[in-house]
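Hello Y.,

Per our agreement to keep a running log of every chain we model this quarter, I'm adding this entry. I've kept the format consistent with earlier entries: sequence first, then predicted structure.
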Amino acid sequence: MPSLADIQGAGLGLKRELIPQFQHLYQDPSIANIQFVEIAPENWLGAGGKALHDLAWFVERYPIACHGLCLSLGGPDPLNTAFLKQVKALLQTHEIPLYTEHLSYCSDVQQGEAGYLYDLLPIPFTEEAVHYVAKRIRQTQDILGQRIAIENASFYAACPISSMDEITFLKAVLTEADCWLHLDINNIYVNSVNFGFDAHTFLRQIPGDRIVYGHIAGHYQQREDLLIDTHGKDVIDPVWNLLDSAYALFGTFPTLLERDSNIPPLNSLVYEVDRIAQYQSQHGYQTLKQAQLRATLIAV
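Predicted structure for the entry above:
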């Protein structure tokens, strides 16, 4: 049965349009650096027919990570336990060892009915919110019967009632919820430009012992001081440099290339996956240390 330790190296988000290309190029040396794939559980719940057959094909050949989109950990409505039970069944059926979610919210209650919003919205950075979100993360972990990882989110407006900065809030939630960290490198960079702080200073404050997974992606520059986390362009050099620094600080961790729009052919995407693998190889002397740390976390 796959374990979290099986998710290593560089990975790529699995999009439906890429499936035939994966199947055609499987075992081709050109995609050898794709060591795992990631799916959004919302896109595969209740899958049948060809979709289920395609998923089974990947389960047999690649470790798989699940990255959720709609759990709304910071939302005002009750946690969607029915959805979580479906996710649990998906994880168990397909032996998927990792489930991650955003440290944000995407739902609201209007006239007694819950509805999902268009985007992932920031949680106010307050002590009350730390307790609220940590409790919901613990509830999620209890239902799933496993730890989850939360992703540092990108955002575009600062909440006026916040009483702490982002890194203080993130660390407080990780500690109180006793969960793992899904470190999104591009989100650190996007927020650093949008809110005028130094990305490398932020990175150095990350609790490295919580990291089990990472993302890297491209973004859209709307203005000089406003970046939008679209996952629709190539990764830029400052974000690559930040990933390099993360590996130097924390050792190599499994890192996935996100591409959610303007998706090029697989043989083009793999160049960026190869670059992740190159950075990991350069920091290979730390791989064993990080693997030992992750094994200790997994055993807890």
